[in-house]
């Protein structure tokens, strides 16, 4: 075992995520990477449902990726963990979780459509995490492919440091591959040649800049060495071209993974530091946690600390998951990814061991719709709750809420496609026929002005908790900022910790029943009693004090917005502008791109739920709308949206105290 462990650590590795807008060709590219590396003997197909990384029934039926899938292949004695992520915006949470555990990325851009909304969103997330990235322009063989236009798009919308390392040979039906421009004697084409690479890299490298200004020829090997250095730092981005469906550009992409993306750091000898980025349920092994190790190692039968939950659990098996296959490997070390069995309490995002080596999580996915789920019969509700809980374990953003007294089930979703997938999953995996209501928009609230909330919870005894909160509006997008000005001699630290823990819970329902956000809450006064205070008195008092404060400040309703880009034939431009005005959109002056009318702007989710379908019907299927979350903004005064409150309102203090104390006593 020891020899195997040492050998395993000696293998060079890459952990690479593959990302793109929907239909840019991620899964097809992954399939060809596996085939050309010799990992699989026959090519699968997205359309026929035989792709290695589309393992769920619903993925094979619909030809789209719903969950991220991990696979492994070896190229030139380097082991590459590749994570194929969904492209549809409804499954952005899967992309978000995968981003966290990658050392490098491949961002695919369609040579026909160019940079699209999700491409841009993922790019900014990659940049914020400083993840070195390869840009791969796919579908060069398709009608309408234009590498020059896509390069201009990338330079305008993503980065000026995209460095083409291959020049396309032909285009559309004449595309036959790519020429390496970083070798001596290569010709390339304007923008896709050695001179273009030198010009861009000279912005980062003083030595190259001096040679460039003085007109001194720079050997291709020096340019490549400089690009390797800056690409691995995430400061320059090699750009490749290909047609994955025909296998063109695939080997070049594998070479670029080795050349330009960094290997993982970390040591197996250090104490464990790892993060769970995916959870699945296996029929024989139960819950499987996909884990990326940054430091340390895990062996079969190890007891590991879940630092997030504060529990220790025993590992029963460590599996290497490869598409639809799995093998027990018994050991996984720093820099690698594996599925760990036996951790029954683990959740997505949990840190195993010490947290200091784990990078922060990005935040891309924001569910904007809530929907009620109905079982086929009352007798099926327990089974439906259990099934949805299992799916929530796999995707925490579903945020399942089961209101037992009202017999109501609610989940949060990103869009209509996700609802279709949930319906299909409940039927195929759990044998349940569930019905979803029409989704409704998730609004939020924010304080309208500054104010104070005070509560003296001293009856019925024994109890004693006195709190005063200052509540102030915060900047848009700032969320909740909490602090305390109360000294520990006035209110014990353990009681202050309880207040701090309860504040976010208490703000889940404001005056209109929506989550309260973008506010600053400061505890300015606190008092306990030596004899009468019970440790949970502050759990009761905090919601009452905060709701009292919100009555003083009032709250403003916030509605979710979409950042949209609409492209239609020029003839439909006037109708689109009229629709946007009716939907209360704000938009930039429209532009003409060839015979296409393009307009970008911000659109309320509430007024545009069915607009993609309407646009397609109106334009004969030739209109395209791409969207991403555009934040929350105050609703107009004539928009009223109130949600039914769950549980007793803390403003009805007598009833609330009785309800909560009864719960505490049981």
TrEMBL record:
Segments crossing the lipid bilayer: none
Cross-referenced SMART domains: EFG_C (SM00838), EFG_IV (SM00889)
CDD domains registered for this protein in UniProt: Tet_C
Keyword annotations from UniProtKB, A to Z: Antibiotic resistance, GTP-binding, Nucleotide-binding, Protein biosynthesis
Name this protein carries in UniProt: TetM/TetW/TetO/TetS family tetracycline resistance ribosomal protection protein
Coiled coil regions, renumbered to chain: none
Residue span, Tr-type G domain: 11-265
Superkingdom of the organism of origin: Bacteria
Pfam families: EF-G_D2, EFG_C, EFG_III, EFG_IV, GTP_EFTU
């Amino acid at each position: 075992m020891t020899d195997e462990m040492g050998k395993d650590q000696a293998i060079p590795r890459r952990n690479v995520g593959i990302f793109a807008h929907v239909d840019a060709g991620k899964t097809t590219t992954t399939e060809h990477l596996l085939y050309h590396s010799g990992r699989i003997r026959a090519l699968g197909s997205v359309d026929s449902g035989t792709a290695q990384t589309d393992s769920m029934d619903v993925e094979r039926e619909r030809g789209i990726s719903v969950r991220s899938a991990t696979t492994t292949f070896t190229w030139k004695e380097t082991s590459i963990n590749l994570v194929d992520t969904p492209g549809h915006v409804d499954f952005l949470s899967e992309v978000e979780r995968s981003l966290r555990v990658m050392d490098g990325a491949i961002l695919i851009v369609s040579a026909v459509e160019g940079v699209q909304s999700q491409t841009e969103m993922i790019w900014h997330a990659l940049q914020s995490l400083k993840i070195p990235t390869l840009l791969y322009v796919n579908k060069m063989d398709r009608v309408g492919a234009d590498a020059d236009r896509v390069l201009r798009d990338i330079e305008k919308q993503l980065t000026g440091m995209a460095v083409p390392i291959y020049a396309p040979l032909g285009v559309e039906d004449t595309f036959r591959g790519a020429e390496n421009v970083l070798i001596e004697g290569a010709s390339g084409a304007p923008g896709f040649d050695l001179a273009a690479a030198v010009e861009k890299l000279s912005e980062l490298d003083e030595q190259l800049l001096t040679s460039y200004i003085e007109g001194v020829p720079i050997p291709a090997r020096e340019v490549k060495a400089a690009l390797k250095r800056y690409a691995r730092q995430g400061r320059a981005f090699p750009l490749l071209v290909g047609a994955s469906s025909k296998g063109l550009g695939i080997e070049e992409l594998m070479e670029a993974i080795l050349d330009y993306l960094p290997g993982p750091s970390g040591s197996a000898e250090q104490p464990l530091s790892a993060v769970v980025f995916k959870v699945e349920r296996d029929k024989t092994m139960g819950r499987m946690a996909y884990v990326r190790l940054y430091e340390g190692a895990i062996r079969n039968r190890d007891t590991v600390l879940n630092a997030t939950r504060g529990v220790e659990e025993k590992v029963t098996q460590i599996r290497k998951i490869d598409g639809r296959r799995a093998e027990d490997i018994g050991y996984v070390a720093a820099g690698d990814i594996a599925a760990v069995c036996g951790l029954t309490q683990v959740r997505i995002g949990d840190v195993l061991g010490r947290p200091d080596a784990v990078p922060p999580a990005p935040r891309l996915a924001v569910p904007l719709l809530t929907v009620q789920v109905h079982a086929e019969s009352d007798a099926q509700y327990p089974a439906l709750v259990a099934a949805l809980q299992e799916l929530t374990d796999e995707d925490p953003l579903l945020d399942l809420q089961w209101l037992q007294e009202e017999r109501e089930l609610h989940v949060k979703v990103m869009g209509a496609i996700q609802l279709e997938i949930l319906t299909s999953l409940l039927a195929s995996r759990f044998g349940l026929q569930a019905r979803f209501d029409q989704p409704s928009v998730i609004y939020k609230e924010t304080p309208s002005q500054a104010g104070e909330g005070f509560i003296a919870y001293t009856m019925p005894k024994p109890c004693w908790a006195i709190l005063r909160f200052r509540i102030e509006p915060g900047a848009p997008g700032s969320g909740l900022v909490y602090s305390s000005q109360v000294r520990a001699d006035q209110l014990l630290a353990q009681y202050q910790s309880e207040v701090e823990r309860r504040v976010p819970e208490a703000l889940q329902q404001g005056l209109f029943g929506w989550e309260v956000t973008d506010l600053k809450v400061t505890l300015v006064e606190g008092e306990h009693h030596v004899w009468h205070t019970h440790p949970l008195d502050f759990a009761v008092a905090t919601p009452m004090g905060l709701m009292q404060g919100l009555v003083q400040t009032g709250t403003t309703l916030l509605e979710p917005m979409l950042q949209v880009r609409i492209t239609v034939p020029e003839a439909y431009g006037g109708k689109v502008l009229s629709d946007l005005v009716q939907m209360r959109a704000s938009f930039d002056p429209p532009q003409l791109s060839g015979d296409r009318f393009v307009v970008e702007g911000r659109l309320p989710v509430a007024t545009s739920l069915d607009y993609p379908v309407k646009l397609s019907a109106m334009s004969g299927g030739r209109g395209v709308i791409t969207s991403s979350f555009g934040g929350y903004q105050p609703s107009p005064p004539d928009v009223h949206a109130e949600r039914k409150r769950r549980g007793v309102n803390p403003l009805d203090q007598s009833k609330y105290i009785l309800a909560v104390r009864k719960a505490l006593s049981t």
